[in-house]
Amino acid sequence: MLYRTAGQFKTSYEADHALFPVKQDAWLLGFILVLAFVVFPMTANEFAFKALLTPVLIYALAALGLNILTGYAGQLSLGTGAFMGVGAYACYKLLTIFPELNILIAIGLSGFFSAAVGVAFGLPSLRIKGFYLAIATLAAQFFLVWLFEKWAWLYNYNASGAIQVPTIEMFGVAVAGPNARAIVQYYFVLCVVALVTCFAINITRGRIGRIWKSVRDMDIAAELVGINLMKAKLSAFAVSSYIVGISGALFVFLWRGAAEPNLFDIPLSFRVLFIAIIGGLGSILGNYLGAILIVALPVIIGTLPATFGIPISSSMAEHLNTMIIGGLIIMFLIVEPHGLARFWEIIREKLIMWPFPH
Amino acid sequence: MNLVEGIFVKPFQDMFGAPDFLIQVLWEGLVAGVLYALIALGFVLIYKSSRIFNFAQGIMVVFAALTLVGLYEKGVPALLALPLTLVVMFLLAVAIERVVLRPLVNQPDIILFMATIGITLFLIGFGEIIFGGENKVMITEQLFIPTGSFTFEPFGGFVSIEQKDLTAVVGAVLLVAGLILFLNKSKMGRAIRALGDDHQAALSVGISLSTIWVLVWFIAGVIALATGIVWGARAGVSFALEVIAFKALPVLMLGGLESVPGAIIGGLAIGILEKLFEIYWGQPLLGGNTETWFAFVFALIVLLFRPQGLFGEKIIERV
Fold first, then answer.
1. Rounded to whole angstroms, how far apart are CA atoms A102 and A117?
2. Which of the residues in chain B have pLDDT under 70?
3. Which residues face A174 on adjacent strands?
4. How far is it, in rounded angstroms, from Cα B54 to Cα B216?
5. Residues of A in contact with B304 (CB under 8 A)
6. Residue of chain A whose Cα is closest to the Cα of B118
7. CB A287 within 8 A of CB A275
8. Mutate which of A75, A224, A319, A342 to test chain B, going by most B C-beta atoms within 10 A?
9. Where do transmembrane segments lie in this chain (chain A) (predicted)?
C-alpha cells in the first residue's frame, strides 16, 4: 500500500535510467540521510560516536572497496588490511612532508598510493584465478605489514615504531588528533563516506560496472565478447584499492589516532571480508548492514551480561565474543548466503505486493 | 657494488665457508618443511574430496594439541589421553559435517571458505574458554618421545640434531606412507579419491557423501593432532601456533591445491628455502624476519609461470 511501483510511469530513457526509479526509494534514502546527518549527532554521546557510529562508517567504506573487487569484479582478495595500511601510512607521510596540506586533500591523495600498490599486486590476477589468487593477495598482506615494520622512514624513525596522529585543523576546527571532538570527526567521516558511496553507486551501475560483472560471471565469455580483461581487472583493483586506502587513512586519522604495523594484520582483512560477505557480495547497501552487525555485536555482547547482572570477566567476554561471531557467521551463511542485502530485497518485494499478495 | 656482492657473492661464501652451519640450517629447514607439508596435507585431503578450502586446518592443529595437553592436566594418563583426543577430533568432524557442511552443500566456494573461517573463530573462542590462553608445555616425555640430541662433527665443524626433530621426521614419513597406502589400497580410500575425481559419478555408484566427508575431516584431525604434538614439542602449545596455518598456504600454491605429492614436495622446498633466505639474505640485507612473507612471494613468482602450481591439475576452461 505504502510501497508500490504501480502508477509511476517512465516516459523517457532518462527517467528509466534514473538513480531511483521508484519514488519511495528516494524518500527512504532521504530519511536515512536525515537520521545520519541530524538525528544521530543530536542524540549520540561521546561513547556512541567513538564505539559505534564512526567505526561503522569506516568499516563500511573498507568493505565497499573490497566489495567492488570481490563482489563486482569477482577477484577474491585477502589483503584488504594491508591496503588500508598503505592508505594510512601514505596519508601520514604526506602530512609530514607537507604540513600545510588540507587533510581532506591528503586523504584523497593517499588513496592513489594504495591504488598503485593494489594494481601492482593485482597484476598476477591476469594469470592466477580463484583460491590461488586469494593466497597470492596474502603475499601482499604479509609483505606490506613486514614493510611497515622495517621501513623506518614510513614512521619518521619513531622509536616506538608506531604512527601518532598530530592535531590537524581544518578551517580553524580540530578534525584529527587528541583535541578533536568526536562529533566533528563523525561529520567529516560521514561526508567522505557519502561522497565515495555516491561515486561507487554510479560507477557500478554504469558501463564499467557492467564490464566488471561480466568478468565476474565468466571471464572467458567476457573476453570473447570483446572485453579487455586486463583493463577490467586492473581497473577493479585500482578503484577498490583507492577506496580501501581512503578508509585506511580515515581509520587511523579520524578514529584510532595512532597505529602500529600489526593493526593492519590479517584479522583486519578478515573483519572487512566478513562485513562484505555477511552484508552481501555485489551490493552497496550490504556493506552498511554488515558493518552495523559486526561493529555493534561486540558492544552488545560486552554490555548485555552486565545489564542482566551476570558477572563476566573481560577476557571471558572477549573469548565469548570470538566464539559467538564465528557461530553467527556460519548461521548467516546457512540462512542467507547472499547476505543481509538480500533480506532487504525480499522485504521490498513483499511490500510491493502487500496487502494483496495475488 | 656492495649490494650486488651482498646478494650474489657473500651468501655463497658464507655457505661454503662454514658447511657445518649450512647443514644445520638445512636440517632446521627440513624439519619446518615436514610440518608445513603435514598441515598442507590436511588442506589437500579436504580440498580434493569436497572442494572446500579449509581455513580451519591451522586451528584444528592447536585444538588437537590443547585437548591432548588439557586432558593430561585433568589427570588422564598420557596414553589414554591420546585415543581420547582422537575421539574428540572425530566428534568435531561429525559436528562440522552436520552443522556446517550439510546445509551448505552446493554453495559457491567462497561461502564454504567463509564458513571455515567461522569455524576457526568459533574454535578459537571455545578453546580459550575451556583451556585458557596461556602457553602450555607439550607432554613429550609422557608420550615416550626422546628429548636428547645427537651431535656429530662433519668438516671439522659441529652439527646438533635434536632427537624429537628426528622423531618428528620419522613419524611424519610413517604417517604419510600410511595415508598413501590407505588412499590407494583400502575401499574407503578409493572412495575418497573417486569423490575427488567426480562428485556425481561417485554418488551414482553409491558412495555416501556425508560418510566420506566425516572421514576426511577426521583424517585431517588426525594429521592435525600429529602436527600439533610435533610442533608443540618444539615451541609449546598456544594459540600462537595458528600462524603456522598461514605457512601452509604458499605450500599449497606451490604444490597445487589437489596434489598430495605436491603438498609434501612443496612443504619441504618452502621450509628449506625460507630458512636459507632468512639466514643468508634476509638477516644481513633486509633486517630479518623475512620468514613471514618469503614463502608467499616465492610461491607467487612460481605461480606466474605455472598458474595451477607445480603438481596441480591442469586448469581447463570452457565457456
1. 23
2. 1, 133, 140-148, 153-157, 241, 315, 317-319
3. A169
4. 12
5. 124, 127-128
6. A326
7. yes
8. A319
9. 26-43, 49-69, 101-123, 130-148, 184-203, 234-256, 268-285, 292-312, 324-344
- Which residues in chain A are closer than 8 Å to B124, comparing Cβ atoms? 319, 322-323, 326
Contact B111 A277 (CB under 8 A): yes
Interface test with B, best of A70, A123, A141, A146 (most B CBs within 10 A): A146
Q: Which residues of A touch B130 (CB under 8 A)?
A: none
Of B94, B20, B34, residue with least CA distance to B223: B34
Question: Residue B18 class from Cβ within 10 Å (0-12 exposed, 13-18 middle, 19+ buried)?
Answer: middle
- Taken in order A197, A238, A132, B172, the sign of the CA dihedral is negative
Instruction: Please give the residue of chain A at the shortest CA–CA distance from B299.
Output: A136
Considering only the beta carbons, identify the residue of A127, A329, A337 that sits closest to B304. A127
C-alpha distance across the termini of chain A, in Å: 14
- Tell me whether A23 touches chain B (CB under 8 Å): no
Contacts of B287 in chain A (CB under 8 A): 150
Check B117 against A266: CB less than 8 A apart.
no
Residue with cell 560471471: A217
In angstroms, the CA A163 to CA A257 distance is 9
Instruction: Enter the pTM of the model.
Output: 0.87
Contacts of residue B58 in chain A, CB cutoff 8 Å? Answer: none
C-beta atoms of A327 and B118 within 8 A: yes
Q: pLDDT tens digit string along A125-175?
A: 888 877 788 887 888 888 898 888 888 787 777 777 788 887 877 787 777
Q: At B166, is the secondary structure helix, strand, or coil?
A: helix
Please tell me the distance from the alpha carbon of residue A222 to that of residue A228, in angstroms, as a whole number: 8
The answer to whether A128 contacts B303, with C-beta atoms less than 8 Å apart, is yes
pLDDT score for A241: 93
Long-range contacts of B129-132 (CB under 8 A, 24+ apart): B129/A316, B129/A319, B129/A320, B129/A323, B130/B70, B131/B66, B131/B67, B131/B69, B131/B70
A232 at B interface, C-beta within 8 A: no
In this complex, which of A139, A218, A324 lies closest to B296 when CB atoms are compared?
A139
Distance CA B204, CA B17 (A): 62
pLDDT of residue B41: 85
Which member of A138, A270, A329 has the closest CB to residue B249? A138
Domains, chain A, ordered by start:
43-353 (1.10.3470)
> Can you name the residues that pair with B232 across neighbouring β-strands?
none
CA distance B139 to B130: 19
Grid cell, residue B176, equals 604419510
Question: Which residues of chain A carry a pLDDT beneath 50?
Answer: none
**Burial profile B157-194: b = 16 or more Cβ within 10 angstroms, e = fewer:** eebebbebbebbbebbeebbeebeeebeeeeebebbeb
Q: How many helices and strands in chain B, by DSSP H and E?
A: 13, 2
Burial of A280 (0-12, 13-18, 19+ CB in 10 A): buried
For each of the domains in chain B, give its residue range(s) and CATH number, in order of start: 2-305 (1.10.3470)
